């Protein structure tokens, strides 16, 4: 009895530091951000303003732009990337495919790069005298260079292409490792029953991968909602505010303009609210509990 | 028809692989060329590698940045390994109803977007600066403290501890080993592959971290490699050859580790969601 009490204490001792650290660096800041959202002022001098920050959100054109840009990235980029990743993983899972390892390694490689490093590379590739313009002109697809990064439409396209390049292989690896866990005999049985490849995919593969699809959808959603490194390093939010994301706007409010931590915290809570709503919807759609 | 399908699959995969690799190729080739040649679209290796490296290490403080990044990555990886594996072990081996509740609460922190807490964190470190300036704003310690013990790694170790044979713990106790002794002398050596996988991910996260260091590190002497590259990338008259060599140097360690330990790498990324 005494022994088990001692063991019990050892257990709490082992988990103590991380528990305290996560409380201090994650949960306390969440609470502080909520309290901050009811205060306003410059720098560290803040006073209580009630719901003023929350009202300001609705009439702040920069916030509306940042929100709609972020949702645009989310709605277009995440589905495109996950479908591509799924397609690649299904192709790479075929044992008859030659050079499987080579393809897998090549497609996964972008996932090991630093976000800053690859962003700067993309910025240069898409500059007016960059390699992409040269390529397009060599193929006579365009006569004059396209100013990708100073055009409101193309700059968004570049951001979406960049994120897709960086994260498709990453998600593909998750699908591939789950596919490899599916028992081959299930497919054998389906084939005997006369199911074709497409039926097999929707009736066997998709249901089996449901948990991992849910996982990648949620992590990609949270990731895209926090988009920052690419925006700062490829376009700096421009031209104008054409590529501004919510995270970049929070950063600008806090560290670029005259700091208003109260309002910045309010904007940041919008991300929290969106994450909660979208995750709840995704869980519901997937019909899973965990 | 079947033949056609298979050709289509290869074409698709070849294009995907080429698009994935091309930026790496361009980055390495540009590292050996002059700025004019890079904008001129040169796709072949040149002879300006040494000049670019000389510029990089002579004109900007790449040495300091590399030193800072290495120091932060090594220390934070070691501490993360020790603290989160202890916790993961603790949650699994000394399992109790109350610990399970604490664990589930910790998992919630994985849903917290960093953007939502960066301002309170900055204020928190402002206050820490007043009592303990050596871990406050503009110190390397502040750059890694908030992400030292994440729920992700605790979850990862707790999950993997399930593979650690319970009988080994019982046997060690009968042999008279203390609880701490079991962890350090039996558990750690047995779980080498789990540690390797986690270490790779922890190192990469730290090496590539940008937003928080950008906020908390302010003086030039404290800059890490991503901060330096971001600075170089935003210059009005960029020296492409030099910047590409900085980017290649920043990318090398993670690419190198990936090729060296591909299995552990993938296990680290996917291992925590299985089961």
Automatic annotation (TrEMBL), chain B:
Keywords: Cell membrane, Membrane, Transmembrane, Transmembrane helix, Transport. GO terms for cellular component: plasma membrane. It comes from Anaerotalea alkaliphila. The lineage of its organism: Bacteria, Bacillati, Bacillota, Clostridia, Eubacteriales. Residues 66-261 form the ABC transmembrane type-1 domain. One of its GO terms (biological process) is transmembrane transport. It is a multi-pass membrane protein. The chain crosses the membrane at residues 7-29, 71-94, 101-122, 134-157, 195-215, 240-261. Belongs to the binding-protein-dependent transport system permease family. The keyword Nucleotide-binding does not apply. This is Carbohydrate ABC transporter permease. InterPro entries: MetI-like, MetI-like_sf. PANTHER family: ABC TRANSPORTER PERMEASE PROTEIN MG189-RELATED-RELATED (PTHR43744), ARABINOOLIGOSACCHARIDES TRANSPORT SYSTEM PERMEASE PROTEIN ARAQ (PTHR43744:SF2). It is found in: Cell membrane. It holds the Pfam family BPD_transp_1. Signal peptide: none annotated. PROSITE patterns: ABC_TM1.
